[in-house]
Amino acid sequence: MSVTAAPDAVRSIAAQIEATLPAIEARITRELAAPDPDTVFQRTYSGGRYFARAPRMCDVDLLDIAHHLSMQTRFAGATRVYYSVAEHSVHLSRIVPAAYALHALLHDGPEFCLTDLPRPVKLDNPAYARLEALNAEVVLGRFALPAEMPAPVARLDHAMNLAEDRALFRAPICTREVIPAEITQIPEIAIQGWDWRTARDAFLARFEEITGLSPADFRGRSERVV
Q1: Does 67 share its domain with 27?
Q2: Does residue 94 contact residue 160 with C-beta atoms inside 8 Å?
Q3: 119-147 pLDDT, tens digit each
Q4: Is 84 within 8 Å of 197 (Cβ atoms)?
Q5: Which domain holds residue 53?
Q6: Do 100 and 210 have their domain in common?
Q7: Do residues 158 and 177 make contact, with C-beta atoms less than 8 angstroms apart?
Q8: Which CA distances in Å does 150 have to 17, 77, 129, 145?
């Protein structure tokens, strides 16, 4: 292409782009208004597809849960060091009664596809709450667990907020106004600030320790994204 022809070529490309914009905008509007839950998917670490609006147990892959949670930070990344949802889950699984260890490890499982939203955002987002409940049924159901968090897990999850607050923030702010009254003791937890790989491997190892089963037995069977 000659130098003199370049401006004409650029104008031609710009005109083509401008001509396609109405169709693109119309398609996006349609998808946002009423997306088909069976066609809107997200990629997973293992190479699969996960349909969060129409989840299926066959698409739930333990490796994806461990990896995605290890790459997500608690508290929207506000901590002094990297602190993942996966590390939080491993620690919680070690302080609950043994009968609830698996539920504690997987209690944030739906966040592998929904991500961990800060609490103020989550409370003001009913659509997220619906998706969270829907995916909890499927993700936890994959491991024969009820979607509802058992009371001992919920109580100690709140208690961990105190331990995490003191260990991870420059200016701890947790008070009795935000911590349930029944929480009277802060758990003794050695928060490490694991890197994502250590957190992922610890999550998978903890699953095997609790269940005696290999994580490889809980791989997803969804169609892989090419």
Answers
A1: no
A2: no
A3: 888 888 888 999 999 999 999 999 999 99
A4: no
A5: 37-218
A6: yes
A7: no
A8: 54, 27, 18, 10
